Amino acid sequence: MRKFENVDIVAALGAVVELNTANYKSDFKYDIAQFKEAARSPDGENNRFLWLSRPSGTYCHLERDTYIKDTAAFNYWNGCATILGKDTPHDKVIVNDRVMTFAVEVTCIKNGRIMGNLHELDYKEHIRQLNRVALPLHTVTATYKDGTTVTLPHKEHDAQHIRLYHQYGQLQALTPHPENADSLRTILTQAREQRENNARPTIFKVRVKNPKAIKPTKPEQPSIKQQLAEGRKHLSEKKPAPTRAAVKNKHSELGG
């Protein structure tokens, strides 16, 4: 697959959005916010993402989180595919939408532009590989509005999330962890080495199948990202939400 080095991340992926995403293009502004935050102090993991464009919106999640089962990242990344068969290198994957996928490495901000490297991904092959090696979710580290950070078994956090919300305030960040952090590092290293070995450096040029088929339609409701953003804004402007609102906030973070 193709590799694009030292490119303007926002310009390059923005071009993909314009060609491949007809509805909910505003989702991309949330992706840009993630890239910008990562570019301020990249640490080797907080600046590596898996990014997907589809006709209705975009997905962008930390690569490390995507390799942990039962997370929002894992569930969303699998959301455009159905796997038939189990645990074999040649499982049949049915892609349910027109998608364009990239591994994104944000490196710096240069002259006001977010720079980095893009690896084009074969979505079907990546889904096969991901589901073969992804690790079970073990614990989560939750950071709350008052600055409190707690690490709990994920099932215990699920059971206590309402109490934690009322005790510490709105959930600001939720980081998932597998049981063995070294195993996750090994899986990520192998995945990155494999795609680097198969990479074909080239000049960025958007390629999209059936471009004439891309026709915007009037959306019936806000996209997932827009709903989550509005929900967070609503919670921050009001007193502690009732039980139902707190549950909804938890599921939006965990990917329920």
Characterization of this structure:
About 30% of the residues are buried. About 40% of the residues lie in helices and about 25% in strands. By secondary structure, it is α+β, with helices and mostly antiparallel strands. Helix 6 (about 155-170) packs across helix 9 (about 245-255). The radius of gyration is 19 Å and the shape is globular. The protein has 9 helices and 11 strands. The protein has a 6-stranded mixed beta sheet. A 3-stranded antiparallel beta sheet has the order 9-8-10, covered by helices on one side. Strands 4-5 form a two-stranded antiparallel sheet. The chain has helices spanning about 10-20, 25-40, 65, 70-75, 125-135, 155-170, 180-195, 225-235, 245-255; strands at about 1-10, 50-55, 60, 80-85, 90-95, 100-110, 115-120, 140-145, 150-155, 170-175, 200. The two termini are about 30 Å apart.
**Which percent band covers the strand fraction?**
25-35%
Helix content: 40-55%
* N-to-C SSE string, H for helix and E for strand: EHHEEHHEEEEHEEHEHEHH
Give the overall average pLDDT: 85
The tally of strands reads: 11
Task: Report the principal-axis shape.
Answer: globular
Number of helices: 9
Largest sheet: number of strands, sense, barrel closure = 6 strands, mixed
* Low-confidence runs: 234-256
Which structural category fits the helices and strands?
A: alpha+beta
What gyration radius follows from the Cα positions, in whole Å? 19 Å
Termini Cα gap: 32 Å
The order of strands across the largest sheet is 3-2-6-7-1-11
